[in-house]
Amino acid sequence: MIPGITPKPAAPQPRHMFVFGAGFVGRYVSERLLAQGWQVSGTCTSPAKKRELEMLGMNASVFDAIESNLENVHSLQQATHLLISIPPIPGIGDPLLNLNEDLRRILSHGNLEWLCYLSTTSVYGDCGGALVDEDHMVNPKSESAKLRYKAEKGWLNLVDDLNLSAFIFRLGGIYGPGRSALDTLAKSKSLSQRQKLRESKQYTARIHVADIYQAVLASMSMRCARKIFNVVDDDPAPRAEVFAFARSLIEMRYPDLIAESPDVGSTESGFQELPAEKRVSNARLKKELGVKLLHPTYRSGLQSILDSWQAES
């Protein structure tokens, strides 16, 4: 050190988010981080989607969850933050965890300081309508829920000896602009068989994509944590109630938009979904991450989506 001259502090490490699976949530998060000056990289499933992401300013790679390896994902080792939004595949499991050794090597020799795996509240299974928090017994019933829970444990085990913060977000049903009850009604789309099966449920956890982004940002301030958070809103209202409210919003503002109701009739006989009644608590999300939901109920969330239609027209 030269006497009388104070050395310059080391330049802060550039923030670089890598998103495995830049779909609805991944793209929403990526666009907003790019606007905040982050470097953002990620994967998608086709050359067409790759071009779309590159037009946003992302460094995108096509990644086949079954056949690809990590050799072509060049920017992963430079990432400081990693968001995993690729679901498990039936018969295969989490495709990234199947690349365990390569993944561990890249992450342990890189710049990673934060990791978040997007899971689902379905891992709790059927709780008879009880209020469940993150300490409640996990009891997945469906094959997809079992694979999700296995992936949760796999990601936490993978980073167990790494000096970084790791989070599991158990998400409710995700909705937002372009993906909501309003959009289903406006497009006169019939409900899928799975959606029809949910119509009879008394409780349905959900979360607006903007509040998922809030949770992502808030978790970045927790250092070297290993935490699970339920990311849901305050109102586990049944789907039928949500669609009724969505219809009333559209009919008030766009009375000629809906020609007829989407088919919400009975499902094919013999096809049944395992019951999964529960009310999911978001108390930890609010208390430990300090998240103040932008859309604490579906009413606020749907109203904001409808307002965005008017702004775009």
Automatic annotation (TrEMBL):
The keyword Manganese does not apply. It comes from the Eukaryota. The keyword NAD applies. GO terms for molecular function: isomerase activity. Coiled coil: none annotated. Keywords: Isomerase, NAD. PANTHER family: EPIMERASE-RELATED. Belongs to the NAD(P)-dependent epimerase/dehydratase family. This is NAD-dependent epimerase/dehydratase domain-containing protein. It comes from Setaria italica. The gene is LOC101781898.
